[in-house]
Amino acid sequence: MKYLVVYDISDDKIRNKVSTRLKKFGMRVQYSAFEIEIKKTDYIKLYKEIASIIDKTDSVFFFPLSSYSESLILKLGQVKREEDVI
């Protein structure tokens, strides 16, 4: 299944840990947003892992993307390389 994962994490070290884990499953589409494709078992592991890393002031959202919802997404511009948004 595909997800859009967005986060607001103030601590650089924690934010880097989260982004490193998300990179394993997809690509960064904005500074604090990843589009990932992941199996349910891996999703549960990733969710628990991120939950154990972040603190109470942080937020991470996992938005499921169905094939229908993906077809309705309008995108302006394009990320050419991962380095462009880091």
TrEMBL record:
Binding site for Mg(2+): 8
GO biological process: defense response to virus; maintenance of CRISPR repeat elements
Keywords: Antiviral defense, Endonuclease, Hydrolase, Magnesium, Metal-binding, Nuclease
Chaperone in keyword set: no
NCBIfam families to which the protein is assigned, alphabetical: cas2 (TIGR01573)
Recorded family membership: Belongs to the CRISPR-associated endoribonuclease Cas2 protein family.
Protein name per its UniProtKB record: CRISPR-associated endoribonuclease Cas2
Provenance organism: Desulfurobacterium atlanticum
